[in-house]
Specification:
elongated, Porin, alpha+beta, about 240 residues
């Protein structure tokens, strides 16, 4: 009986060792190339890659290249067109919870950089008269975050990547400037006061920024601006599609 038990133990150990060896030898490295359609709405074309480092872990790298987006809306009975473009870069390390790599539920810490620029023509009331302005926004930020997502493989080739929960923290800089484009003399003290009130009221409802931004007015150049530098929270979610090789 002891010999039989010993024999069975040996067989079990050998079978487990063989299974582990087969698992190691059957591991294949893959690369997935992806595209995030929603990036177009934010003025960029977002493409990326995923490279599996081990069976259940991958390195991801994504870039958003500027592609100007225009959005036209009727505001105050005038058609206003917003011009926007962005550049972004992001790298992450992804761990899959399932038995297979590049498939199923995953957790991914990441670091990212974003540069966004936007312009639109608008009006502000200066000295009791509506004046035309070019409003410009510039944002830059670098941040860290972590996201949960699910990746689906169709026919072992087509990739659908859904990231649905991605809180992040960003160190950000934002400048909003308004340059008067209509003709007229330099602002006097009253007009400069109107300009400061107008830009302050414009940004006061912007979360996290409105009550912390610094407001400046250049009466000679007929220009007003706000500046903010500091922490901003963020949230990442979306879908990308691609092909695995």
């Amino acid at each position: 009986m002891k010999k039989i038990l010993l024999f069975l133990c040996c067989v079990l150990i050998m079978s487990q060792s063989r299974a582990q060896d087969e698992e190691k030898t059957s591991f294949k490295k893959h690369v997935a190339l992806k595209w995030a359609p929603a990036g177009i709405y934010f003025g960029k074309i977002t493409v990326g890659g995923e490279f599996n480092l081990a069976r259940k872990s991958s390195f991801t790298l994504n870039f958003g290249f500027p592609a100007e987006k225009t959005i036209t809306r009727n505001i105050d009975n005038k058609d206003r067109t917003l011009y926007m473009k962005s550049f972004s870069a992001m790298g992450g390390y992804r761990f899959y919870f399932g038995k297979k790599g590049m498939k199923g539920l995953y957790f991914e810490p990441y670091v990212k950089y974003l540069d966004n620029k936007a312009t639109i023509n608008t009006d502000f009331s200066i000295g009791g008269t509506n004046q035309a302005f070019l409003l410009s926004s510039t944002y830059t930020g670098i941040g860290v975050g972590a996201q949960l997502g699910v990746q689906i493989l169709i026919a072992k080739r087509i990739v659908i990547d859904w990231y649905f929960l991605g809180p992040e923290a960003n160190s950000s800089k934002h400048e909003l400037s308004a340059q008067q484009t209509s003709a007229g003399p330099a602002w006097d003290a009253e007009a400069a006061g109107d300009a400061q009130d107008e830009i302050s009221n414009f940004i006061k409802d912007i979360p996290m920024i409105g009550d912390k931004a610094t407001v400046t007015v250049d009466a000679a150049q007929k220009r007003m601006a706000t500046n903010y530098s500091g922490f901003l929270p963020g949230f990442r979610f979306g879908i990308s599609v691609g092909v695995r090789f």
